[in-house]
Specification:
single chain; alpha+beta; FAD/NAD(P)-binding domain; eight-stranded mixed sheet; six-stranded antiparallel sheet; 21 strands; globular; disordered N terminus; flavoprotein
Protein backbone atom coordinates (compact mmCIF):
# COMPACT_ATOMS: atom_id res chain seq x y z
CA UNK A 1 0.00 0.00 0.00
CA UNK A 2 1.32 3.39 -1.01
CA UNK A 3 0.43 5.43 2.11
CA UNK A 4 1.50 8.61 3.85
CA UNK A 5 4.74 7.02 4.98
CA UNK A 6 5.93 6.51 1.39
CA UNK A 7 4.42 9.27 -0.71
CA UNK A 8 4.72 13.02 -0.36
CA UNK A 9 2.57 15.00 -2.79
CA UNK A 10 3.14 18.54 -4.09
CA UNK A 11 1.01 20.14 -1.38
CA UNK A 12 2.97 18.23 1.28
CA UNK A 13 6.23 19.41 -0.22
CA UNK A 14 5.24 23.08 -0.24
CA UNK A 15 3.88 22.89 3.29
CA UNK A 16 6.99 21.05 4.43
CA UNK A 17 9.15 23.80 3.03
CA UNK A 18 7.18 26.48 4.83
CA UNK A 19 7.30 24.50 8.03
CA UNK A 20 11.04 23.94 7.74
CA UNK A 21 11.54 27.68 7.31
CA UNK A 22 9.47 28.32 10.42
CA UNK A 23 11.44 25.72 12.29
CA UNK A 24 14.71 27.29 11.25
CA UNK A 25 13.52 30.53 12.79
CA UNK A 26 12.39 28.86 15.99
CA UNK A 27 15.60 26.93 16.49
CA UNK A 28 17.88 29.89 15.92
CA UNK A 29 18.92 29.68 12.29
CA UNK A 30 17.12 32.83 11.21
CA UNK A 31 19.34 35.38 12.83
CA UNK A 32 17.11 38.37 13.50
CA UNK A 33 19.14 40.55 11.19
CA UNK A 34 22.38 39.91 13.09
CA UNK A 35 24.47 38.24 10.41
CA UNK A 36 22.38 38.84 7.33
CA UNK A 37 19.95 41.35 5.92
CA UNK A 38 18.39 43.55 8.56
CA UNK A 39 14.65 43.14 9.01
CA UNK A 40 12.38 46.19 9.03
CA UNK A 41 11.02 46.28 12.57
CA UNK A 42 7.80 47.86 11.28
CA UNK A 43 5.11 48.40 13.86
CA UNK A 44 5.36 47.36 17.48
CA UNK A 45 2.90 44.75 18.81
CA UNK A 46 -0.64 46.02 18.32
CA UNK A 47 -1.28 46.57 22.02
CA UNK A 48 1.81 48.66 22.64
CA UNK A 49 0.77 52.04 24.03
CA UNK A 50 1.41 55.24 22.12
CA UNK A 51 3.08 57.93 24.16
CA UNK A 52 4.19 57.52 27.79
CA UNK A 53 2.70 54.51 29.54
CA UNK A 54 1.37 55.37 33.03
CA UNK A 55 2.86 52.09 34.30
CA UNK A 56 6.40 53.17 33.44
CA UNK A 57 8.89 53.57 36.25
CA UNK A 58 11.81 54.79 34.13
CA UNK A 59 12.94 58.42 34.14
CA UNK A 60 12.86 60.73 31.15
CA UNK A 61 16.24 60.88 29.42
CA UNK A 62 16.29 64.66 29.91
CA UNK A 63 16.67 64.07 33.67
CA UNK A 64 19.98 62.23 33.28
CA UNK A 65 22.76 63.89 35.30
CA UNK A 66 26.43 64.08 34.37
CA UNK A 67 27.60 62.31 37.55
CA UNK A 68 26.24 59.80 40.08
CA UNK A 69 27.71 58.25 43.21
CA UNK A 70 26.56 54.82 41.92
CA UNK A 71 25.87 53.71 38.35
CA UNK A 72 24.53 50.22 37.62
CA UNK A 73 24.67 48.95 34.03
CA UNK A 74 21.88 46.44 33.49
CA UNK A 75 18.60 45.68 35.23
CA UNK A 76 18.49 41.88 35.54
CA UNK A 77 18.55 40.05 38.86
CA UNK A 78 21.99 41.31 39.92
CA UNK A 79 21.44 44.93 38.92
CA UNK A 80 17.92 45.13 40.35
CA UNK A 81 18.97 43.73 43.73
CA UNK A 82 21.88 46.16 43.98
CA UNK A 83 19.69 49.09 42.93
CA UNK A 84 17.17 48.29 45.67
CA UNK A 85 19.70 47.67 48.44
CA UNK A 86 22.09 50.56 47.72
CA UNK A 87 19.38 53.16 47.12
CA UNK A 88 18.05 52.30 50.58
CA UNK A 89 21.33 53.64 51.99
CA UNK A 90 20.57 57.19 50.84
CA UNK A 91 23.03 57.33 47.96
CA UNK A 92 21.90 58.41 44.51
CA UNK A 93 21.78 55.33 42.28
CA UNK A 94 21.44 55.43 38.50
CA UNK A 95 20.43 52.31 36.52
CA UNK A 96 21.16 52.16 32.79
CA UNK A 97 19.22 49.57 30.74
CA UNK A 98 19.73 49.08 27.01
CA UNK A 99 16.13 47.94 26.36
CA UNK A 100 12.70 49.45 26.81
CA UNK A 101 9.98 48.89 29.39
CA UNK A 102 7.57 46.01 28.80
CA UNK A 103 4.22 45.62 30.52
CA UNK A 104 1.42 43.03 30.41
CA UNK A 105 -0.40 43.31 27.08
CA UNK A 106 2.72 44.36 25.18
CA UNK A 107 4.33 40.94 24.78
CA UNK A 108 3.93 38.92 21.56
CA UNK A 109 0.59 37.21 21.06
CA UNK A 110 1.01 35.71 17.58
CA UNK A 111 3.56 34.98 14.90
CA UNK A 112 3.22 38.46 13.45
CA UNK A 113 4.30 39.99 16.73
CA UNK A 114 7.29 37.66 16.97
CA UNK A 115 8.92 39.13 13.90
CA UNK A 116 8.62 42.60 15.40
CA UNK A 117 10.17 41.89 18.80
CA UNK A 118 13.55 40.63 17.61
CA UNK A 119 16.33 42.81 19.01
CA UNK A 120 18.83 43.97 16.38
CA UNK A 121 20.53 47.09 15.10
CA UNK A 122 17.43 48.25 13.26
CA UNK A 123 15.13 47.43 16.17
CA UNK A 124 16.88 48.36 19.44
CA UNK A 125 13.50 48.23 21.19
CA UNK A 126 13.21 44.51 20.49
CA UNK A 127 12.62 42.05 23.31
CA UNK A 128 14.48 38.91 22.21
CA UNK A 129 18.22 39.08 21.55
CA UNK A 130 19.90 36.12 19.89
CA UNK A 131 23.64 36.44 19.49
CA UNK A 132 24.07 34.00 16.63
CA UNK A 133 27.56 34.43 15.27
CA UNK A 134 29.13 32.53 12.39
CA UNK A 135 32.25 31.78 14.46
CA UNK A 136 30.36 30.70 17.57
CA UNK A 137 29.82 27.18 18.90
CA UNK A 138 26.98 28.31 21.16
CA UNK A 139 23.92 30.44 20.34
CA UNK A 140 22.89 32.70 23.21
CA UNK A 141 19.24 33.67 23.62
CA UNK A 142 18.44 36.44 26.11
CA UNK A 143 16.04 39.29 26.83
CA UNK A 144 16.47 43.00 26.20
CA UNK A 145 14.32 45.20 28.37
CA UNK A 146 13.88 46.63 31.84
CA UNK A 147 13.96 43.63 34.15
CA UNK A 148 16.32 41.66 31.92
CA UNK A 149 16.01 37.89 31.93
CA UNK A 150 12.96 37.96 34.19
CA UNK A 151 10.84 39.09 31.23
CA UNK A 152 11.31 35.85 29.30
CA UNK A 153 12.32 33.13 31.75
CA UNK A 154 10.07 30.47 33.28
CA UNK A 155 10.46 32.19 36.69
CA UNK A 156 11.89 29.06 38.34
CA UNK A 157 13.43 29.62 41.78
CA UNK A 158 15.48 26.43 42.06
CA UNK A 159 18.62 25.97 44.14
CA UNK A 160 21.91 24.24 43.39
CA UNK A 161 22.50 21.21 45.60
CA UNK A 162 25.11 21.35 48.37
CA UNK A 163 27.55 19.35 46.26
CA UNK A 164 27.75 22.21 43.73
CA UNK A 165 28.68 24.77 46.38
CA UNK A 166 31.45 22.50 47.66
CA UNK A 167 33.32 22.53 44.33
CA UNK A 168 36.68 24.31 44.26
CA UNK A 169 35.63 26.46 41.29
CA UNK A 170 34.16 28.82 43.89
CA UNK A 171 36.39 31.15 45.97
CA UNK A 172 36.93 29.75 49.46
CA UNK A 173 34.81 32.51 51.03
CA UNK A 174 31.77 31.38 49.02
CA UNK A 175 32.29 27.74 50.03
CA UNK A 176 32.62 28.82 53.64
CA UNK A 177 29.49 30.96 53.49
CA UNK A 178 27.51 28.07 52.11
CA UNK A 179 28.81 25.78 54.87
CA UNK A 180 27.85 28.28 57.58
CA UNK A 181 24.36 28.85 56.16
CA UNK A 182 24.82 32.41 54.90
CA UNK A 183 24.22 31.57 51.23
CA UNK A 184 21.00 29.80 52.16
CA UNK A 185 19.91 32.84 54.16
CA UNK A 186 20.53 35.11 51.19
CA UNK A 187 18.52 32.77 48.95
CA UNK A 188 15.67 32.92 51.43
CA UNK A 189 15.89 36.72 51.48
CA UNK A 190 15.71 36.97 47.68
CA UNK A 191 12.93 34.41 47.54
CA UNK A 192 10.79 36.51 49.87
CA UNK A 193 11.04 39.51 47.54
CA UNK A 194 10.43 37.41 44.43
CA UNK A 195 7.46 35.70 46.15
CA UNK A 196 8.34 32.18 45.02
CA UNK A 197 5.52 29.68 45.56
CA UNK A 198 4.15 26.34 44.40
CA UNK A 199 1.05 26.57 42.24
CA UNK A 200 -1.80 24.71 43.98
CA UNK A 201 -2.94 23.18 40.68
CA UNK A 202 0.50 22.15 39.41
CA UNK A 203 -0.41 18.46 39.29
CA UNK A 204 -3.84 18.98 37.71
CA UNK A 205 -2.67 19.49 34.13
CA UNK A 206 -1.95 16.71 31.64
CA UNK A 207 1.70 17.47 30.95
CA UNK A 208 2.73 17.42 34.62
CA UNK A 209 0.72 14.28 35.32
CA UNK A 210 2.48 12.53 32.43
CA UNK A 211 5.86 13.80 33.58
CA UNK A 212 5.22 12.42 37.05
CA UNK A 213 3.96 9.10 35.74
CA UNK A 214 6.92 8.54 33.43
CA UNK A 215 9.46 9.66 36.02
CA UNK A 216 8.08 7.26 38.59
CA UNK A 217 8.12 4.43 36.03
CA UNK A 218 11.82 5.16 35.54
CA UNK A 219 12.38 5.25 39.32
CA UNK A 220 12.98 9.02 39.57
CA UNK A 221 11.07 11.29 42.00
CA UNK A 222 9.09 14.09 40.38
CA UNK A 223 8.64 17.30 42.38
CA UNK A 224 6.89 20.64 41.98
CA UNK A 225 8.92 23.77 41.26
CA UNK A 226 8.88 27.01 43.19
CA UNK A 227 7.87 29.70 40.71
CA UNK A 228 7.93 33.50 40.89
CA UNK A 229 4.31 33.74 39.81
CA UNK A 230 1.33 35.21 41.66
CA UNK A 231 -1.72 33.01 42.06
CA UNK A 232 -2.95 34.22 45.46
CA UNK A 233 -4.58 37.60 44.67
CA UNK A 234 -6.14 39.30 41.67
CA UNK A 235 -6.29 42.94 40.56
CA UNK A 236 -4.59 44.09 43.72
CA UNK A 237 -1.37 45.86 44.61
CA UNK A 238 1.53 43.72 45.75
CA UNK A 239 3.95 44.63 48.55
CA UNK A 240 5.74 47.07 46.21
CA UNK A 241 2.66 48.98 45.07
CA UNK A 242 2.27 47.30 41.68
CA UNK A 243 -1.14 45.95 40.64
CA UNK A 244 -0.96 42.29 39.65
CA UNK A 245 -3.44 39.71 38.40
CA UNK A 246 -3.66 36.04 39.29
CA UNK A 247 -2.10 33.41 37.04
CA UNK A 248 -4.49 31.91 34.46
CA UNK A 249 -2.17 28.99 33.61
CA UNK A 250 -1.95 30.25 30.01
CA UNK A 251 1.52 28.83 29.32
CA UNK A 252 3.08 32.04 28.01
CA UNK A 253 5.62 32.72 30.78
CA UNK A 254 8.58 32.39 28.40
CA UNK A 255 7.27 34.73 25.71
CA UNK A 256 6.25 37.42 28.19
CA UNK A 257 3.39 37.42 30.67
CA UNK A 258 0.43 39.35 29.24
CA UNK A 259 -1.74 38.42 32.22
CA UNK A 260 0.34 40.38 34.72
CA UNK A 261 0.88 37.56 37.22
CA UNK A 262 4.55 36.82 36.75
CA UNK A 263 6.82 38.32 39.40
CA UNK A 264 9.23 39.99 37.02
CA UNK A 265 11.75 42.45 38.42
CA UNK A 266 9.59 45.42 37.40
CA UNK A 267 7.04 44.44 40.08
CA UNK A 268 9.43 44.02 43.03
CA UNK A 269 13.11 44.99 43.25
CA UNK A 270 13.00 47.77 40.62
CA UNK A 271 9.94 49.66 41.95
CA UNK A 272 11.46 49.29 45.42
CA UNK A 273 14.63 50.97 44.15
CA UNK A 274 12.61 53.68 42.40
CA UNK A 275 10.62 54.44 45.55
CA UNK A 276 13.91 54.98 47.38
CA UNK A 277 15.16 57.55 44.91
CA UNK A 278 16.98 55.46 42.31
CA UNK A 279 16.87 56.86 38.78
CA UNK A 280 16.23 54.38 35.96
CA UNK A 281 16.99 55.09 32.32
CA UNK A 282 16.02 52.80 29.45
CA UNK A 283 17.31 52.59 25.87
CA UNK A 284 20.82 53.32 27.17
CA UNK A 285 23.25 51.09 25.29
CA UNK A 286 26.64 51.24 27.05
CA UNK A 287 29.56 50.84 24.66
CA UNK A 288 32.52 50.78 27.09
CA UNK A 289 33.84 52.25 30.31
CA UNK A 290 37.07 53.98 31.27
CA UNK A 291 38.76 54.85 34.56
CA UNK A 292 40.31 58.26 35.21
CA UNK A 293 43.54 58.87 37.08
CA UNK A 294 41.42 60.17 39.95
CA UNK A 295 39.55 56.86 40.16
CA UNK A 296 36.27 57.98 38.62
CA UNK A 297 34.51 55.76 36.09
CA UNK A 298 33.47 57.17 32.72
CA UNK A 299 30.55 55.37 31.06
CA UNK A 300 30.16 55.83 27.30
CA UNK A 301 26.60 55.29 26.13
CA UNK A 302 24.30 55.68 23.16
CA UNK A 303 20.69 56.59 23.88
CA UNK A 304 18.50 54.87 21.29
CA UNK A 305 15.03 56.05 22.31
CA UNK A 306 14.40 57.96 19.09
CA UNK A 307 17.55 59.06 17.33
CA UNK A 308 20.94 57.87 18.54
CA UNK A 309 22.49 60.28 21.04
CA UNK A 310 26.02 59.57 22.23
CA UNK A 311 27.15 60.74 25.64
CA UNK A 312 29.08 60.03 28.83
CA UNK A 313 28.33 60.06 32.53
CA UNK A 314 30.70 59.46 35.42
CA UNK A 315 30.41 57.47 38.63
CA UNK A 316 32.26 56.97 41.90
CA UNK A 317 31.04 53.37 42.10
CA UNK A 318 30.38 51.33 38.96
CA UNK A 319 28.46 48.05 38.98
CA UNK A 320 28.34 45.93 35.84
CA UNK A 321 25.13 43.87 35.71
CA UNK A 322 24.33 43.41 32.01
CA UNK A 323 24.33 39.61 32.11
CA UNK A 324 26.92 37.05 31.06
CA UNK A 325 27.11 38.12 27.43
CA UNK A 326 26.38 41.83 27.89
CA UNK A 327 28.79 42.45 30.76
CA UNK A 328 31.61 40.43 29.18
CA UNK A 329 31.18 42.28 25.90
CA UNK A 330 31.37 45.70 27.57
CA UNK A 331 34.37 44.60 29.65
CA UNK A 332 36.21 43.33 26.56
CA UNK A 333 35.58 46.55 24.69
CA UNK A 334 36.75 48.48 27.75
CA UNK A 335 39.97 46.47 28.00
CA UNK A 336 40.61 47.24 24.32
CA UNK A 337 40.26 50.93 25.26
CA UNK A 338 42.83 50.60 28.03
CA UNK A 339 40.99 49.43 31.17
CA UNK A 340 43.25 47.12 33.16
CA UNK A 341 41.53 43.75 33.65
CA UNK A 342 42.42 40.14 34.42
CA UNK A 343 43.51 37.82 31.63
CA UNK A 344 40.72 35.51 32.82
CA UNK A 345 38.19 37.82 31.14
CA UNK A 346 35.96 35.76 28.85
CA UNK A 347 36.71 32.43 30.52
CA UNK A 348 34.56 29.83 32.31
CA UNK A 349 31.60 30.19 29.97
CA UNK A 350 28.94 27.61 30.77
CA UNK A 351 25.62 26.76 29.16
CA UNK A 352 24.51 25.56 32.63
CA UNK A 353 24.15 22.03 31.30
CA UNK A 354 20.89 23.14 29.65
CA UNK A 355 19.39 20.99 26.96
CA UNK A 356 16.03 20.66 25.23
CA UNK A 357 14.33 17.65 23.67
CA UNK A 358 10.91 16.52 22.42
CA UNK A 359 8.71 13.47 22.50
CA UNK A 360 6.86 14.11 19.27
CA UNK A 361 3.48 12.69 18.37
CA UNK A 362 2.97 10.33 21.28
CA UNK A 363 0.01 8.28 22.49
CA UNK A 364 -1.56 10.85 24.81
CA UNK A 365 -2.89 14.39 24.53
CA UNK A 366 -0.57 16.62 26.56
CA UNK A 367 -1.93 20.18 26.29
CA UNK A 368 1.57 21.62 25.90
CA UNK A 369 0.24 24.38 23.65
CA UNK A 370 0.02 27.69 25.45
CA UNK A 371 -3.30 29.44 24.90
CA UNK A 372 -2.34 32.95 25.97
CA UNK A 373 -5.34 35.17 26.60
CA UNK A 374 -7.63 32.85 24.59
CA UNK A 375 -8.62 29.94 26.81
CA UNK A 376 -9.43 26.73 24.95
CA UNK A 377 -12.32 24.56 26.10
CA UNK A 378 -11.19 21.35 27.76
CA UNK A 379 -7.51 22.30 27.72
CA UNK A 380 -5.34 23.94 30.38
CA UNK A 381 -1.72 24.58 29.46
CA UNK A 382 -0.39 25.30 32.93
CA UNK A 383 2.59 27.51 33.58
CA UNK A 384 5.55 27.23 31.21
CA UNK A 385 7.45 24.80 33.46
CA UNK A 386 5.97 23.37 36.65
CA UNK A 387 7.64 20.11 37.71
CA UNK A 388 10.96 18.31 37.47
CA UNK A 389 12.35 14.81 37.72
CA UNK A 390 15.18 14.98 40.25
CA UNK A 391 18.30 13.11 39.12
CA UNK A 392 20.35 14.42 42.05
CA UNK A 393 20.40 11.18 44.03
CA UNK A 394 20.87 11.44 47.79
CA UNK A 395 22.95 8.31 48.22
CA UNK A 396 26.22 9.13 46.51
CA UNK A 397 29.89 8.56 47.25
CA UNK A 398 31.43 12.03 47.82
CA UNK A 399 34.79 10.79 46.49
CA UNK A 400 33.43 9.34 43.26
CA UNK A 401 30.31 11.36 42.52
CA UNK A 402 29.95 12.54 38.91
CA UNK A 403 28.13 15.87 38.64
CA UNK A 404 27.59 15.24 34.92
CA UNK A 405 25.04 12.61 35.90
CA UNK A 406 23.13 14.92 38.28
CA UNK A 407 20.49 17.20 36.79
CA UNK A 408 16.87 18.35 36.78
CA UNK A 409 14.64 17.13 33.93
CA UNK A 410 11.71 19.54 33.54
CA UNK A 411 8.43 19.70 31.66
CA UNK A 412 7.68 22.45 29.15
CA UNK A 413 5.08 24.39 27.16
CA UNK A 414 5.02 25.97 23.70
CA UNK A 415 4.08 29.67 24.04
CA UNK A 416 0.89 30.53 22.16
CA UNK A 417 2.68 32.87 19.74
CA UNK A 418 4.98 30.02 18.69
CA UNK A 419 2.31 27.31 18.49
CA UNK A 420 1.45 27.53 14.77
CA UNK A 421 5.10 27.86 13.79
CA UNK A 422 6.31 24.95 15.89
CA UNK A 423 3.45 22.63 14.97
CA UNK A 424 4.00 23.13 11.24
CA UNK A 425 7.78 22.87 11.56
CA UNK A 426 7.48 19.50 13.26
CA UNK A 427 4.81 18.37 10.82
CA UNK A 428 7.13 19.24 7.93
CA UNK A 429 9.88 17.21 9.55
CA UNK A 430 7.48 14.30 10.08
CA UNK A 431 6.53 14.26 6.40
CA UNK A 432 10.18 14.09 5.45
CA UNK A 433 10.62 11.23 7.92
CA UNK A 434 7.23 9.54 7.53
CA UNK A 435 8.65 6.02 7.80
CA UNK A 436 9.18 6.65 11.53
CA UNK A 437 5.43 7.06 12.15
CA UNK A 438 2.32 4.91 12.10
CA UNK A 439 -0.68 5.69 9.90
CA UNK A 440 -2.54 7.01 12.95
CA UNK A 441 0.34 9.30 13.83
CA UNK A 442 0.50 10.65 10.28
CA UNK A 443 -3.18 11.59 10.50
CA UNK A 444 -2.28 13.80 13.46
CA UNK A 445 0.62 15.27 11.50
CA UNK A 446 -1.72 16.23 8.66
CA UNK A 447 -4.12 17.88 11.10
CA UNK A 448 -1.31 20.24 12.14
CA UNK A 449 -0.19 20.88 8.60
CA UNK A 450 -3.45 21.39 6.77
CA UNK A 451 -6.61 21.52 8.88
CA UNK A 452 -6.36 24.88 10.63
CA UNK A 453 -4.09 27.88 10.98
CA UNK A 454 -3.89 27.19 14.71
CA UNK A 455 -2.61 23.81 15.95
CA UNK A 456 -5.38 21.24 16.39
CA UNK A 457 -5.88 20.00 19.97
CA UNK A 458 -5.98 16.51 18.44
CA UNK A 459 -2.94 17.15 16.27
CA UNK A 460 0.57 15.78 16.61
CA UNK A 461 2.11 18.69 18.51
CA UNK A 462 -0.56 18.60 21.22
CA UNK A 463 0.21 14.92 21.64
CA UNK A 464 3.86 15.76 22.26
CA UNK A 465 6.01 16.66 25.24
CA UNK A 466 8.84 19.16 25.64
CA UNK A 467 11.70 18.36 27.98
CA UNK A 468 14.17 20.83 29.42
CA UNK A 469 17.10 20.06 31.68
CA UNK A 470 19.46 22.00 33.92
CA UNK A 471 22.62 20.04 34.53
CA UNK A 472 26.36 20.41 34.30
CA UNK A 473 29.05 20.97 31.74
CA UNK A 474 32.79 21.58 31.89
CA UNK A 475 32.45 25.39 31.73
CA UNK A 476 35.21 25.31 29.12
CA UNK A 477 33.66 27.81 26.74
CA UNK A 478 35.32 31.15 26.17
CA UNK A 479 34.00 34.46 24.92
CA UNK A 480 35.93 36.12 22.11
CA UNK A 481 35.43 39.67 20.89
CA UNK A 482 35.07 39.94 17.14
CA UNK A 483 36.89 43.18 16.43
CA UNK A 484 35.20 43.59 13.05
CA UNK A 485 31.64 43.17 14.34
CA UNK A 486 32.42 44.50 17.83
CA UNK A 487 30.48 41.76 19.62
CA UNK A 488 31.34 38.57 21.41
CA UNK A 489 30.91 34.96 20.40
CA UNK A 490 31.63 31.68 22.19
CA UNK A 491 34.46 29.35 21.25
CA UNK A 492 33.88 25.83 22.59
CA UNK A 493 34.89 23.04 20.18
CA UNK A 494 32.92 19.77 20.49
CA UNK A 495 30.53 21.28 23.01
CA UNK A 496 27.63 19.11 21.81
CA UNK A 497 29.64 16.01 22.74
CA UNK A 498 30.02 16.95 26.40
CA UNK A 499 29.17 14.06 28.71
CA UNK A 500 26.46 15.94 30.58
CA UNK A 501 24.53 16.73 27.41
CA UNK A 502 24.83 13.18 26.09
CA UNK A 503 23.67 11.73 29.43
CA UNK A 504 20.57 13.92 29.48
CA UNK A 505 19.74 13.20 25.84
CA UNK A 506 19.74 9.46 26.51
CA UNK A 507 17.37 9.89 29.45
CA UNK A 508 15.02 12.14 27.50
CA UNK A 509 14.83 9.42 24.84
CA UNK A 510 13.58 7.01 27.53
CA UNK A 511 10.77 9.42 28.42
CA UNK A 512 9.81 9.72 24.76
CA UNK A 513 9.66 5.94 24.45
CA UNK A 514 7.43 5.71 27.53
CA UNK A 515 5.18 8.35 26.00
CA UNK A 516 5.02 6.52 22.68
CA UNK A 517 6.52 9.44 20.80
CA UNK A 518 9.54 9.88 18.56
CA UNK A 519 12.47 11.44 20.39
CA UNK A 520 13.75 14.59 18.71
CA UNK A 521 16.82 16.23 20.26
CA UNK A 522 17.09 19.99 19.94
CA UNK A 523 17.23 20.44 16.14
CA UNK A 524 19.82 23.20 16.62
CA UNK A 525 22.19 20.45 17.79
CA UNK A 526 21.27 17.79 15.26
CA UNK A 527 19.97 19.49 12.10
CA UNK A 528 20.67 23.23 11.98
CA UNK A 529 24.37 23.85 12.44
CA UNK A 530 25.27 21.39 15.22
CA UNK A 531 25.49 24.07 17.88
CA UNK A 532 24.36 24.41 21.46
CA UNK A 533 21.73 26.94 22.52
CA UNK A 534 22.20 28.71 25.85
CA UNK A 535 19.26 30.37 27.54
CA UNK A 536 21.12 30.41 30.88
CA UNK A 537 24.60 31.61 29.84
CA UNK A 538 27.00 31.81 32.77
CA UNK A 539 30.57 33.01 33.21
CA UNK A 540 32.79 35.37 31.28
CA UNK A 541 33.77 37.39 34.38
CA UNK A 542 34.13 34.47 36.80
CA UNK A 543 34.80 34.70 40.53
CA UNK A 544 38.22 33.51 41.59
CA UNK A 545 40.64 33.57 44.49
CA UNK A 546 42.99 35.78 42.46
CA UNK A 547 43.46 37.43 39.08
CA UNK A 548 44.88 34.23 37.60
CA UNK A 549 41.65 32.33 38.15
CA UNK A 550 39.05 35.08 38.17
CA UNK A 551 37.99 38.46 36.85
CA UNK A 552 36.39 39.35 40.19
CA UNK A 553 36.79 38.20 43.79
CA UNK A 554 34.10 36.67 45.99
CA UNK A 555 32.58 40.12 46.55
CA UNK A 556 32.38 40.91 42.84
CA UNK A 557 35.27 43.38 43.08
CA UNK A 558 37.14 43.66 39.78
CA UNK A 559 40.79 42.59 39.59
CA UNK A 560 43.48 44.42 37.61
CA UNK A 561 45.73 42.21 35.48
CA UNK A 562 48.36 42.19 38.24
CA UNK A 563 45.97 41.13 40.98
CA UNK A 564 45.11 44.46 42.55
CA UNK A 565 41.52 45.60 43.13
CA UNK A 566 39.78 48.40 41.24
CA UNK A 567 38.25 50.44 44.04
CA UNK A 568 34.52 50.94 43.57
CA UNK A 569 34.24 48.61 40.54
CA UNK A 570 32.00 45.52 40.77
CA UNK A 571 30.40 42.86 38.58
CA UNK A 572 27.14 41.38 39.88
CA UNK A 573 25.30 39.10 37.47
CA UNK A 574 25.47 35.63 35.91
CA UNK A 575 28.89 36.39 34.40
CA UNK A 576 30.56 35.95 37.82
CA UNK A 577 29.40 32.34 38.22
CA UNK A 578 32.48 30.16 37.68
CA UNK A 579 30.65 26.94 36.87
CA UNK A 580 27.35 25.28 35.97
CA UNK A 581 24.72 25.00 38.70
CA UNK A 582 22.48 22.03 37.91
CA UNK A 583 19.59 24.41 38.62
CA UNK A 584 18.14 27.55 37.09
CA UNK A 585 20.39 30.51 37.96
CA UNK A 586 18.03 33.33 38.93
CA UNK A 587 17.93 32.55 42.65
CA UNK A 588 21.69 31.98 42.85
CA UNK A 589 22.41 35.30 41.10
CA UNK A 590 19.91 37.11 43.35
CA UNK A 591 21.39 35.58 46.51
CA UNK A 592 24.96 36.47 45.53
CA UNK A 593 23.78 39.99 44.71
CA UNK A 594 22.19 40.30 48.16
CA UNK A 595 25.47 39.11 49.68
CA UNK A 596 27.57 41.55 47.63
CA UNK A 597 25.24 44.43 48.52
CA UNK A 598 25.75 43.71 52.22
CA UNK A 599 29.53 43.63 51.78
CA UNK A 600 29.55 46.91 49.81
CA UNK A 601 27.55 48.61 52.55
CA UNK A 602 29.57 47.04 55.39
CA UNK A 603 33.01 47.99 54.03
CA UNK A 604 31.94 51.63 53.43
CA UNK A 605 32.61 51.51 49.69
CA UNK A 606 29.80 54.04 49.38
CA UNK A 607 31.30 56.32 51.98
CA UNK A 608 28.45 55.65 54.39
Amino acid sequence: MEDDKKKVNRRDFISAGAGALAGAGFFGVLQNGQDGKQEDPGREPASSPRGPDPRNIANNFKQLKKHYPVVIIGSGYGGSVLAARLSAQGKQVCVLERGREWHPGMFPKDGGDLSKVAFNKMNPKGLVDSNIHKKSNVDIICASGLGGTSLLNAAIASRPEALVWQQKDWPKEIREDFANGKITNYMNKAQRVLASTHHPDAMKVRKTQLHKQMGEELGVPVKELLLNVNHTFDKQKNDYGVVQNACTMCGDCCSGCNVGSKNVLTVNYLPLARSQGAEIYTMMDVSYVEKTKEGKYVIHYVNKENKEIEGVITADVLIMAAGSMGTTQIMMRSRFKGLRLSEALGSRFSANGDIMGFSYNGLTQTDILGHGLNKRAGSTSGQAIMVYADYRKDNYDPKNVDLMERYLLLDGTVPSALGPMVSKAFAAWALANSSKFSDEQMKKVRKDLFDTAEPDVDGAINNSLIFFACGHDSSNGRYRLDDYEDRVHVVWPNVINEKGFQTINREMAKYAKAHGGIYVPNPRMTVFGHRMMATHPLGGCPMGDDAQTGVVDHNGRVFTEDGKIHKGFFVVDASILPRSLGATPLLTVSALAERIADHIIADHTLGI
